[in-house]
Design a protein that fits this description.
By secondary structure, the chain is α/β, with parallel strands linked by helices. It has one domain (6-54, 110-203): Rossmann fold, CATH 3.40.50.2020. The protein is 34% helix and 19% strand. The chain has six helices and eight strands; from the N terminus they run H-E-H-E-E-E-E-H-E-H-E-H-E-H. The strands form two sheets. The protein has a five-stranded parallel beta sheet with strand order 2-1-6-7-8, sandwiched between helices. The chain has a three-stranded antiparallel beta sheet with strand order 3-4-5. Helix 1 runs parallel beside helix 2 (34-46) and helix 3 (87-109) crosses helix 6 (196-203). The longest helix is centred in the middle third of the chain and has 23 residues, at 87-109. It is globular, with a radius of gyration of 16 Å.
């Protein structure tokens, strides 16, 4: 156990991110739901805008918590390299998760105008990185907007997953990469499920 909760984890990260404080072209993006709690604290501490991206994990047929892939809001599918899941399952699961990604994006953002990420510095935040697949999907989506710089942030991550993402971004800030990594939640004393209403409130 390293962190008391998601907010305290973000507060530990802030001293490492002061180069982005009050930078006009910087946007913090959180991954719902839990990552938005961490992202909101970082955005507040840096005094920069907060927004979201909503990639969705594609769970394995017999264990929905184990990611075999991820899908972006616009339907791009990224698969685990060693996934042996049938194509039909992937297509059906990806379509379902894409609909959920779009639902969450609209629900959480309400009437806010479309993301303007072109030539911006994007600080992409989650509360932890287990397989890295949803983060990869988020990066795939963000890169289509041609940002100036992407900084990947998480309090804790699995070493292999973090290493697999380093070539996709300009900077990685993941201070804790323990050799044994079972799940993100085990590194927090309190890791409650975050509700849709909480995400909406944080974005407002």
């Amino acid at each position: 156990m390293i962190f008391a909760n998601r907010k305290q984890a973000a507060q530990q990260l802030l001293p490492l991110l002061q180069a982005y404080r009050q930078q006009a072209n910087t946007i913090v993006l959180g991954l719902p739901r839990g990552g938005v709690v961490t992202a909101a604290e970082i955005a507040r501490g840096l005094n920069v805008p907060l927004d979201i991206v909503t990639p969705r994990k594609i769970g394995a047929p017999f264990n929905k918590e184990f990611a075999v892939g991820a899908v972006t809001m616009d339907g791009a599918i990224l698969l685990n390299d060693d996934s042996a899941v049938p194509d039909d399952y992937i297509k059906q699961a990806a379509a379902k998760q894409q609909r959920e990604a779009q639902r969450r994006f609209k629900l959480y953002r309400g009437q806010r105008p479309p993301l303007q990420l072109h030539h911006k510095t994007i600080v992409l935040v989650d509360d932890g990185i287990a397989t890295g697949l949803t983060m990869r999907a988020a990066l795939h989506y963000i890169r289509s907007f041609k940002p100036k710089r992407i900084v990947l942030i998480a309090p804790v991550g699995a070493p292999d997953a973090v290493a697999s993402l380093t070539h996709l971004v300009d900077q990685v800030v993941v201070p804790h990469t323990p050799d044994y990594f079972g799940s993100v939640g085990e590194w927090y004393a309190a890791f409650p499920e975050v509700t849709d209403d909480e995400v909406i409130a944080l974005l407002q």
